[in-house]
Write a sequence for this structure.
């Protein structure tokens, strides 16, 4: 199984709108080399975001003088779109004054690139900086993410101190105050740093505000499973007219849809392992018809390493299958629902499952599918269906709630809407990101609704502590 989003309730329960939320990024570095034998670096981190293929500077931290292991107090606030891939670049600079005229110099020390979703899913991401030229350096950057609750409340604080110790025999101290949070993993995280009061043993620091949003923690966990239609209506994979045809230079529509959606989802997956299934084919060695077989032919372990692993398993299995039919998707929904139902009985029920179904045909077991969806609506589970090809997909609108509340043949309504259907043909001339954005847009609210119905609340904020630090 794959861990798509660590503690979905904690994270997505804090969404301020249907499509985005705001996040704060807290930054620190370790192991920055000295400028020379006499001087430590004066580090600063620059945040850039990719737009139209170009890196654009968004913000930068303060400069911390003479420090090889900086903990920056500057927080970056960004809009986070769950359904989009947002590329970030962090550049480490050494900013110092030099020469007779005291001009400022910026020395480039290294960089890290990642997706915002990777940071969100792990809550805290540590990576080695790449030095100029692309070689891996010894410096480490750590990026901690916090989602904002939409609560604009602040705590206003003021501090003073008396009779502090002298820096040495000749000079007084230059004190400043830092407030740290004690995280659940027992690590300390900087929340705020005051200004430095020079040469003063009885400092009075300026009154300041700390946002309650910066004191909120979030966990994310979700699971993704992939199901691919191998019915005969797709056409012989050896024929260039087939929807499963493997072209030597360009992906077919199944691959385009799989990669577009999977590459977004895998950012929220901790182990990057994806169970992949097929349906509607005769499977070796006995070539019996199956509607829920493992694409890698390993029924004990259907997981593939990353989305690229799913792609490779799909391409490898095609020549070994005999495409058949009918287009029954109830068995694969029930298979995933079985895993989701087991999660309900765990202590915290923090795992959420997403089933992505890629199919070219009209569903032939509609009654059973409706029943399976109604039952799945009670579970931590969402279903995304992408219609491949030019078939009549009008029946899919009923599953998507386009014709009113979906009910089973017995008249039982869904507890909540968990199905999103999109015909791939609407996105043939659009970017992969446009398809992913469309099919994933409803997932956050579906997750929130499930955990709200279950009365599962986000975890409470961690304990906060303050500590005095003295700048030398």
């Amino acid at each position: 199984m794959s861990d798509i989003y660590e503690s979905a309730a904690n994270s997505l329960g804090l969404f301020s709108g249907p499509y985005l939320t705001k996040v704060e990024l807290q930054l620190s570095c370790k192991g920055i080399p000295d400028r020379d034998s006499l001087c430590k670096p004066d580090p600063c981190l620059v945040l850039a975001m990719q737009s139209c293929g170009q890196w654009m500077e968004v913000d930068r931290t303060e400069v911390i003088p003479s420090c090889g292991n900086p903990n920056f107090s500057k927080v970056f606030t960004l809009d986070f779109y769950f359904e989009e891939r947002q590329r970030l670049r962090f550049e480490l600079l050494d900013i110092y004054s030099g020469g007779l005229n005291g001009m400022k110099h910026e020395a480039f020390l290294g960089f890290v690139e990642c997706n915002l979703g990777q940071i969100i899913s792990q809550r805290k991401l540590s990576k080695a900086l790449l030095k100029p030229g692309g070689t891996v350096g010894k410096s480490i950057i750590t990026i901690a993410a916090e989602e904002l609750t939409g609560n604009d409340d602040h705590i206003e604080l003021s501090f003073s101190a008396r009779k502090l110790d002298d820096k040495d025999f000749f000079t007084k101290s230059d004190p400043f105050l830092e407030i740290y949070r004690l995280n659940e993993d027992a690590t300390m995280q900087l929340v705020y740093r005051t200004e430095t009061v020079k040469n003063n043993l009885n400092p009075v620091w300026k009154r300041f505000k700390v946002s309650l949003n910066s004191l909120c923690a979030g966990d994310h966990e979700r699971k993704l499973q992939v199901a691919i239609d191998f019915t005969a209506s797709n056409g012989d994979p050896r024929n260039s007219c087939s929807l499963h045809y493997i072209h030597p230079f360009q992906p077919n529509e199944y691959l385009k849809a799989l990669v577009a959606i999977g590459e977004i989802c895998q950012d929220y997956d901790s182990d990057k392992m994806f169970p992949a299934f097929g349906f509607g084919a005769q499977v070796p060695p006995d070539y019996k018809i199956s509607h829920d077989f493992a694409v890698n032919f390993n029924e004990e372990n259907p997981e593939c390493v990353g989305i690229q692993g799913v792609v490779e398993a799909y391409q490898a299995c095609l020549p070994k299958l005999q495409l058949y039919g009918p287009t029954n998707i109830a068995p694969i929904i029930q298979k995933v629902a079985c895993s989701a139902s087991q999660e309900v009985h765990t202590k915290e029920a923090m795992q959420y499952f997403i089933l992505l179904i890629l199919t070219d045909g009209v569903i032939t077991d509609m009654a059973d599918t409706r029943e399976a969806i109604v039952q799945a609506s009670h579970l931590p589970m969402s279903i995304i269906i992408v219609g491949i090809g030019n078939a009549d997909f009008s029946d899919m609108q009923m599953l998507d709630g386009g014709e009113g509340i979906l009910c089973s043949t017995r008249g039982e309504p869904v507890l909540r809407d968990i199905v999103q259907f999109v015909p791939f043909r609407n996105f043939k001339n659009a970017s992969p990101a446009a398809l992913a954005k469309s099919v994933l847009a409803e997932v956050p609210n579906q997750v929130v609704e499930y955990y709200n119905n279950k009365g599962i609340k986000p975890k409470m904020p961690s304990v906060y502590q303050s500590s005095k630090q003295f700048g030398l």
Observations:
- The two ends are 51 Å apart (CA to CA).
- The chain is about 20% helix and 35% strand.
